[in-house]
Specification:
A hairpin with a 4-residue loop joins strand 10 and strand 11. The chain is α/β, with parallel strands linked by helices and 268 residues long. The model has no long low-confidence stretch (mean pLDDT 97). The chain is 37% helix and 23% strand. Helix 1 crosses helix 9, helix 4 runs parallel beside helix 5 and helix 6 runs parallel beside helix 7. The structure holds NADPH dihydro-nicotinamide-adenine-dinucleotide phosphate and ligand LZUJQKHR. It catalyses: (S)-2,3,4,5-tetrahydrodipicolinate + NAD(+) + H2O = (2S,4S)-4-hydroxy-2,3,4,5-tetrahydrodipicolinate + NADH + H(+); (S)-2,3,4,5-tetrahydrodipicolinate + NADP(+) + H2O = (2S,4S)-4-hydroxy-2,3,4,5-tetrahydrodipicolinate + NADPH + H(+).
């Protein structure tokens, strides 16, 4: 499968280039950055630390899409929306790991999913997607006397909060409870907030150092607490998941798919 890696000089982009070079059935069609990137012209493999691949980083996506079978995209929300349209026009698979997408941006990507196979997830790891299934089950089992809080920590360079994974887990909790996350979500507390509202799903965010990604969903009851956690040690995990999604999406009918679809976890 000939893949275009977007944001190829970024933290995830470099992981993806390396993962493509190591994954049977995948080949690097192009490595793309924005037109002002200082990485333009550099060899994508050398930048990724996996040896020369003779694929220079370029900025022309339209040319890159010619002859490609898929795009793997961990960039920015605006970039992912623009790419979704281009991927749909070209009829090729689009794997989106970008987080911090607004409802409108998700809507535009969903629309592209009516024309090509799109896999979008705030977290491409097996562990987090399994955890989401467990969270849904626990939330379904426990009553509203258990308060649900989602805690996440990431590296100091992360620009969106709460994380895409935190929302994925919060969504799973809301589904388990049979409520809309938009009605239950409390994303920040500061000052005299008053007592906690029953049924809220709270989010708390920590940022610092080089933390790859840590998430805990807490179910706090009277006199007892259940905590379900996931810790990512290495971004390569997300890159491998994204390539699995790309291979799965190749030749799939158009649709807006999740990692639960890719991993067969929908019945959890
Ligand atoms: N779903 C998942 O499993 C995971 C998702 N993520 C998400 O992926 C995204 C990227 O994360 P990360 O790699 O850490 O961030 P980085 O900032 O390191 O990488 C993003 C890259 O995209 C480049 N870029 C920006 N705009 C464009 C454009 N228009 N065209 C091409 N390239 C562009 C950036 O260039 P420049 O820096 O010069 O602006 C940068 O090199 C985030 O939203 C993050 O939350 C991260 C890990 C796992
Ligand atoms: O920005 C990151 O680094 C990560 N982003 C994703 C998120 O927002 O959940 C996934 C992972 O935790 C790393």
């Amino acid at each position: 499968m000939r893949l275009v890696i977007m944001g190829a000089a970024g933290r995830m982009g470099r992981m993806l280039v390396k993962a493509v070079s190591e994954t049977p059935g995948c080949a690097l069609a192009a490595a793309i950055e924005h037109p002002e990137s200082i990485a333009l012209g550099q060899d994508a493999g050398l930048l990724a630390g996996c040896g020369r691949l003779n694929v220079p980083i370029t900025s022309d996506v339209e040319i890159a899409l010619e002859g490609a079978h898929g795009i793997v995209d961990f960039t920015t929300p605006a970039t992912s929306v623009r790419l979704a349209r281009l991927a749909a026009d070209a009829g090729i698979a689009h794997v989106i790991g970008t987080t911090g997408l607004s409802d409108e941006e998700i809507g535009a990507i969903r629309e592209a999913g009516s024309r090509t196979a799109v896999v979008q997830s705030g977290n491409m790891s097996l562990g987090v997607n399994l955890l989401a299934g467990l969270v849904r089950k626990v939330a379904q089992t426990l009553g509203p006397e258990f308060d649900i809080e989602v805690l996440e920590m990431h590296h100091r360079a992360k620009v969106d909060a709460p994380s895409g994974t935190a929302f994925l887990l919060g969504e799973a909790a809301a589904q388990g409870r049979g409520v809309a996350l938009s009605d239950a979500k409390t994303a920040a507390r500061d000052g005299h907030t008053g007592a906690r509202r029953e049924g809220d799903i709270g989010f708390a965010v920590l940022r610092g150092g080089s933390v790859v990604g840590e998430h805990t969903v807490i179910f706090a009851g009277a006199g007892e607490r259940i905590e379900l956690s996931h810790r990512a040690d290495d971004r390569a995990l997300f890159a491998r998941g994204a390539l699995k999604a790309a291979l799965w999406a190749k030749d799939r009918p158009p649709g807006f798919y999740s990692m639960a679809d890719v991993l067969g976890l929908n019945d959890l």
